[in-house]
Amino acid sequence: MGHRKKSAPKRGSLAFLPRGRAARAFGRIRFWPEVEVGPTMLGFMGYKAGMIHVFILEDKIGSPDYGKETLHATTVVETPPIWVCALRAYVRTPIGLKTFTEAWMKDPPKDLGRAIILPENFNPDPGLKKMEENLEKIVEFRLLVATQPRQTGVPKKKPDLVEIKIDGGSMNEQYEYARGLLGKTVSVTDVFKDGQFVDVSSVTKGKGFQGPVKRWGVRILPRKSRKTKRGVASIGPWHPARVLYTVPRAGQMGYFQRTEYNKRVLKIGTDGQEVSPKGGFLRYGPVRGNYILLDGSLPGPTKRLIRFRYPARAPRIVSDAPPKITYLSLESPQG
Length: 335
Hints:
- By secondary structure, the protein is mainly beta.
- The protein has helices spanning 125-133, 171-181, 212-216, and strands at residues 40-41, 43-57, 69-78, 82-93, 96-104, 138-146, 161-167, 185-186, 197-203, 206-210, 251-254, 257-269, 291-295, 305-309, 325-328.
- It is built from three helices and 15 strands.
- The strands form three sheets. Strands 1, 4, 5, 6, 7 and 8 form a six-stranded antiparallel sheet that branches. Strands 2-3-13-12-9-14 form a six-stranded antiparallel barrel. Strands 10-11 form a two-stranded antiparallel sheet.
- The chain starts with 39 loop residues before the first strand and ends in a 7-residue tail after the last strand.
- The relative contact order is 0.24.
């Protein structure tokens, strides 16, 4: 066996260029998968509370730890019920999807006025009638839903308003399903179940303006270097007479949108005290209501809005039974 060189890239990844700040503080989902079940909403959202650790019985067949207790770092996301404020129908055009019409709920929650300007009175009937008459044209239904941050540990009142696609069944079934939800609240248990996988979109922690050592992982130059030590020694050749985009430079770090695939739902619960550590989560407090427990870490700091979606590329082998949690640590993070 010859000596294999250790792979240690010192120039970061060019996969996410340009590294600019996200347009808004919550993730934008650009792709919705097709599902067999349904009709159903393809997503949900909640506010990140913090992390704890649990022991679960490993149920992945073929794993060396199958049947044994394994330690998992888990993230708690508080998921109060969401308001279904409007139903939006889309038609296909040569340049992509276009809004055909929409129907808003009759009596929207008062807090919705913090996010958008509310008209005197909403009348959903004309929009719903137009949808019914043109079902053969419509290719997609999406719900406009609003969060209820007052029910969480997040210190804000303004709801976050996002779109969630409906899929599964025929367009007629999707329309009836969506019409039945208009003006009502939807719980996380109506969308996801224990043990399934979800994709997670969020905006990462912002780090501000950082140099190339922290931002790209370049080597710190030797002590005797002239001019600089925490910079790149050569930023390129004489020609082409410009700095190439591939050269590590200082700039914005963090506050980027990122999507992480196939996070397993370990548990969905209604009593937040079951997962709140003694004294509450740092910089968040106790979880008060519905929550979702996800295996592993999620992008973003505490209090940030996290968006969930049915998996775009789910694992082929998934256990039907929900994972069995044997121990859940609620010790105070501050000792």
